[in-house]
Amino acid sequence: MKLGQGVEWGLHSCVSMSWTPPGEAVSSARLAEFYKLPAAYLNKQLQALVRAGILTSVSGPRGGFSLARRPDRISVLDVVLAIEGKEDSFRCEGILKNAPGWGMDADYARTCLISQTMRHAEVTWRTELSRQSIAGIAHSIERRFPQARAETVRELVGPRTP
Amino acid sequence: MKLGQGVEWGLHSCVSMSWTPPGEAVSSARLAEFYKLPAAYLNKQLQALVRAGILTSVSGPRGGFSLARRPDRISVLDVVLAIEGKEDSFRCEGILKNAPGWGMDADYARTCLISQTMRHAEVTWRTELSRQSIAGIAHSIERRFPQARAETVRELVGPRTP
DNA sequence: GGGATCTTACTCGGATAGCCTGTGTCCGAGTCTGAAAGG
DNA sequence: CCTTTCAGACTCGGACACAGGCTATCCGAGTAAGATCCC
Question: What is the CATH number of the domain that holds A82?
Fold first, then answer.
């Protein structure tokens, strides 16, 4: 059970974009330069967030990505599922269907108690992540690191600082 | 975030072995035939459980695998971690170390609030899985499918039924 | 000077390779069983 | 009949291929900004 890097990148990018002024898009090149990440690959991950309706994208100069809705309406779970996929982590192949003496041919996921256990654990995991929003994380960061927001905005908007 | 098949196989195998009489080992070939799984690969997964101290293995005729301790002392989390590895699912590469204006060079995992959020969610997930034991699942199955235990034992121990 | 046009540079988006972790298979070392042989 | 020996077959364990997905990169379509030209 391993999550891809794109999750971390997507979450940090969303937090940063929650600080930039509305209407101002941030290009993936800017974000990549800020975080020292490969620009094209970061762009690819952000595309997944666009497909999920979390971000909006604009092409051309002064283009880039912006949050598609208010950051308090974007949960951490939304970002995770957008990048990792919405499928359950525990793939239940229903091996008991092949075992003799069980006779469970359909509706396996609800019958197999092991599958139920794994599913319940994942529900708690998802619930925990859905409780946290991008705005909540951003506010916590602002409280803990007062200079973080201003520094981030300075690097992401305005003229490029070579 | 995807778990390997070995988790499902390992859990079902442990539940089945909690039913077989103590001292009687079950070979991976028997289990594989029962569940219609590739025998060699199932063997490989069970090896991981042996390395984790969950199972004990005996070579030779009448050999196979057995639970290393009482099934109420084996949690679902033990099996999951034995097969998937003990590392956290959210790999925090600490991209903020490279971002300017943050000055967090060490102890990143405890400082970054995004990492904290992901870690907390995973802790709840692991806690949920650690609450469920192999014995608990086995008892629930026995209550719901009274014939399951006898049928499983019949197929896994005693002479082979061609 | 003001407006239309055109170049230009910048951005996303998808298509294209490389690598690394599962997935699946195979063969050898070790060992217990069971039969056979001998006393 | 009991003990010893021995061959045999069965099992785990690790070493060996294969595949799919994550990682990383490149180039083209589209667009808005800014310069240029004309009125």
Answer: 1.10.10.10
- How many distinct structural domains can be found in chain B? 1
Amino acid, single-letter form, for residue B33:
E
Residue B117 near residue A138, CB atoms below 8 Å? no
Tokens 């967030």 — which residue? A49
Domain-embedded: residue A114: no
| Predicted pLDDT of residue A123 | 97
Q: Which residues of B touch A35 (CB under 8 A)?
A: 95-96, 98-99
Which are the contacts of B86, defined by CB distance < 8 A and separation ≥ 6? none
pLDDT over 60 at B162, yes or no:
no
pLDDT at residue A161, rounded to an integer? 59
- Is residue A115, in this structure, part of any structural domain at all? no
Rounded-to-integer distance, Cα A61 and Cα A160, Å: 13
* In contact, A20 and A26? CB cutoff 8 Å: yes
- What is the predicted pLDDT for the residue at A162? 53
Residue A93 lies in a domain: no
| Residue B21 predicted with pLDDT over 80 | yes
Nucleotide nearest to A40 in CA–C1' terms: D25
* Contact between B117 and A132 using a beta-carbon 8 Å cutoff: yes
Q: Closest Cα of chain A to B92: distance in Å?
A: 7
Q: Is the pLDDT of residue B3 over 60?
A: yes
What residues of chain A score a pLDDT lower than 50?
Answer: none
